[in-house]
Amino acid sequence: MTQEEIEAQIAADPDEAGMVYDWDSVTTVMPKPKVDLHMRIDGDVLDWFRTTGKGYQTRINAVLRSYVTQMRKRKAG
């Protein structure tokens, strides 16, 4: 990919909005692949996340990750 193509993809990603990278000092770590999951959640919860716009599924994942992190800390402590 060209530098322009990379920057265009970053600009199109809502999770990267507003982030500035110094490409001369960046290291790349490939994320773990996501798992496809079909689950049932309360409609009002899903509606709220959807109102937050593009990237809402990533935000749901972030909330779940935060919960798991806190529960792991409690269990370890």
Characterization of the model:
With 77 residues, the protein is mainly alpha-helical. It has one domain (3-76). 52% of the residues lie in helices and 0% in strands. It has helices at residues 3-12, 43-51, 56-76. The longest helix has 21 residues, at 56-76. It starts with a helix and ends with a helix.
Keywords:
single chain; 77 residues; mainly alpha; 3 helices; 52% helix; extended
Question: What is this entry, summarized?
Answer:
This protein is mainly alpha-helical and 77 residues long.
How many discrete domains? Answer: 1
Global outline: extended
Strand fraction: under 5%
> What percent of residues adopt helix (DSSP H or I)?
40-55%
Secondary-structure element series: HHH
Which stretches of 5+ consecutive residues score pLDDT under 50? none
Structural class call reads mainly alpha
> How many strand segments?
0
List the total number of helices: 3
Rounded mean pLDDT score = 88
Global Rg? 16 Å
End-to-end distance, in Å?
46 Å
Topology diagram in text:
Elements: H1 3-12, H2 43-51, H3 56-76
